[in-house]
Amino acid sequence: MTGRAPTDAEPPLLIACALGIERFALRRGGRGGAAEETGPRVVTLRTGMGPQAAERALTEALREGAVTERSPVIASGFCAGLAPGMRPGDVVVAEATRDHHAAAPETPCRDNGPLLRALRERGLTVHSGLLCGSDHVVRGAERAELHAAGAVAVDMESAATLRAARAAGRRPVAAVRVVVDAPEHELVRIGTVRGGISAFRVLRSVLPVFHEWHRSLLLPWR
Description:
There is one protein chain. By secondary structure, this protein is α/β, with parallel strands linked by helices. Helix content is 32%, strand content 25%. The chain has helices at residues 20-27, 51-64, 113-121, 140-148, 158-167, 194-205, 207-216, and strands at 13-17, 36-39, 42-46, 73-81, 91-98, 106-108, 126-133, 151-155, 173-181. A five-stranded mixed barrel has the order 4-8-7-5-9, surrounded by five helices. The longest helix has 14 residues, at 51-64. Mean pLDDT is 83; it is low at 1-8, 29-34 and 189-193.
């Protein structure tokens, strides 16, 4: 649901994802829609696919007051791994995101230390580095080119989401994605083979880590 966040409350966490199946995993059930409260101080936002949709949905949610101007933002969901040896179900925590435009600046994710520690403590395989944006599904040779340029993973929404979040105010931002396909494990459709199911299960398990990160940010933010 939409609505204004209480001004006297701790700033709620906004989790943005593109697909209904991602939102279902992150909410541990539920139906689609716009921004919706999923528990204490957490709002999920299904943006739709692509950088333009992500930027538009995030900007609208912030303008409508579903969260406060201090709310942290996490971009989450699935991604394509770029490094050899990555497998479906691996987790990517961005050190920075960069849009698909050639000269686009990076958006740093400076507060991701607690996320990295908590995810690794759960026994997950976690990669950290540049998460690159794209406006289309990346496969084959293009995947290798992005990895050679320094990216560890690619998706279509994270960079646009975090850029829009930072444009609307100084706030903590992060991007946490689960690898659904990788150079040796390319998928045709999410959820139709074992790798997609594995990625879904991992994504479903990370919500408590997001809660922990949110609580850690209640200390004065640098």
